[in-house]
Design goal:
Radius of gyration: 55 Å
Order of helices and strands: HHH
Largest sheet: none
Strand content: under 5%
Number of strands: 0
Helix content: over 70%
Shape: rod-shaped
Number of domains: 1
Structural class: mainly alpha
Length: about 230
């Protein structure tokens, strides 16, 4: 005969062990779900943080570029103003020298005409008088040649000064180079983990049920103590 007391105890123990196995499987599955969710949350939060960093870095790169462009424009404007003033000053000096030379040539011509007129008015004739008049013409021509040569030299010097002013303008403009923005790359979106499969935990729970069933069957077939 069977021992009902021992069988019941064994059955209860089997059921309790089966329940614990099922509860353990359920708790493990839930814990894995929470772990995957937390890892995905952390990955998404880190991705969003990197996106903000990239946006801020791109903003500051654009800011530095715009500031440098404004400085370059200001430098060019100031260089153009200085160049215009220098060219104007050079042209003014050349015009003044040309005006002085023209006045000197005119004054010299008037003096020569007066001198020749005085000789002719005196009624003097002869080779010596003609030679004297010709000498006035030669002196006038020589004076005009020297004056024109000085004006030509002044004009050449003005051209050199203009070229130097142009080079100075270019150097001033080139002193402010274009800012080359750094390339800011967007972060790579994370690959989210999939939800854990329930199959291993169902198998674990199923194994617990099988063990519990086996324990119950064993308890029911236990022999009675004689």
């Amino acid at each position: 005969m069977c021992d009902p007391t021992g069988g019941i105890a064994t059955g209860v123990l089997a059921v309790a062990q089966g329940g614990l196995g099922i509860a353990s499987a359920q708790a493990g599955y839930q814990a894995e779900q929470e772990a995957v969710g937390f890892r995905n949350y952390e990955a998404q939060r880190n991705y969003e943080y990197q996106q903000r960093q990239a946006a801020n870095a791109r903003y500051y790169e654009n800011l530095k570029f715009n500031q440098q462009e404004a400085l370059r424009a200001q430098t060019r404007a100031l260089a153009d103003i200085a160049y215009g003033q220098e060219i104007g000053s050079i042209n003014m000096r050349l015009m003044q020298e040309q005006e002085v030379a023209a006045q000197q040539k005119q004054k010299s011509a008037i003096q020569g005409m007066q001198s020749r007129g005085e000789i002719k008015a005196a009624g003097r004739v002869g080779n010596s008088i003609d030679a004297l008049i010709n000498d006035y013409y030669r002196q006038q021509a020589q004076y005009d040649y020297v004056t024109d040569r000085n004006v030509a030299f002044a004009s050449m010097q003005s051209q050199e000064q203009k070229r130097a002013s142009g080079s100075e303008r270019a150097n001033r403009i080139a002193s402010q180079q274009e800012y080359v923005k750094q390339q800011i790359y967007d972060p790579i979106a994370p690959i989210m983990q999939k939800a854990p499969s329930s199959t291993p935990y169902l198998l674990q729970a199923g194994g617990a049920l099988v063990q519990a069933g086996a324990g119950i069957n064993k308890s029911m077939n236990m022999p009675k103590r004689g």
